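Structure in, sequence out. Go:
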């Protein structure tokens, strides 16, 4: 079975230039700190209810979340682990798998833009984790599309929000994990 890359919690490079929030609660997110075991990882092409979910193999069955601050932005760091103990976890932060505190919720988001006038290919991958006392669930949606630039518009990621309704949902991923 072909493994689709896990697009959990993708973070835009905009994170690195995010505004500092000096009033951010330094303990924010600590309730989610800990080790998790992936119990389900599935994907499907498209986003219709009729499309079947297909089981996939994650990069690893284990990961650790750790609340932190990166350049003034609250994040939940994602660390892949090879086993169910902290001493098996990568020291390096997987920014692709991390979540950012944005507008009152944890989320992952990445946008992209390619092309030049008049054609521009735009895309977005977004996910919002839902935490419970026993673990988390994350549904990720990837949308893409070709748009015609208007007037002096340049093909930039800032256009994704403007044209979001014209993008087609290409793929969804579902991850469920139990907290250990």
């Amino acid at each position: 079975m072909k493994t689709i890359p896990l697009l959990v919690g993708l973070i835009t490079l905009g994170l690195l230039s995010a505004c500092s929030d000096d009033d951010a609660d330094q303990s924010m997110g600590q309730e989610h700190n800990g080790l998790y075991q992936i119990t389900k990882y599935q994907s499907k092409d498209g986003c219709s209810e009729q499309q079947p979910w297909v089981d996939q193999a994650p990069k690893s069955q284990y990961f650790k979340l750790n609340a932190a601050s990166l350049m003034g932005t609250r994040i939940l760091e994602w660390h892949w682990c090879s086993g169910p103990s902290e001493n098996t976890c990568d020291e390096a932060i997987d920014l692709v798998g991390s979540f950012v505190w944005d507008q009152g919720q944890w989320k992952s988001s990445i946008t992209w833009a390619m092309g030049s006038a008049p054609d521009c290919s735009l895309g977005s991958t977004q996910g919002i984790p839902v935490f419970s006392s026993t673990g988390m669930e994350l549904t990720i949606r990837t949308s893409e599309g070709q748009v015609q630039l208007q007037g002096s518009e340049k093909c930039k990621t800032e256009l994704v929000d403007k044209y979001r309704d014209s993008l087609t949902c290409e793929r969804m991923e579902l991850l469920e994990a139990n907290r250990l």
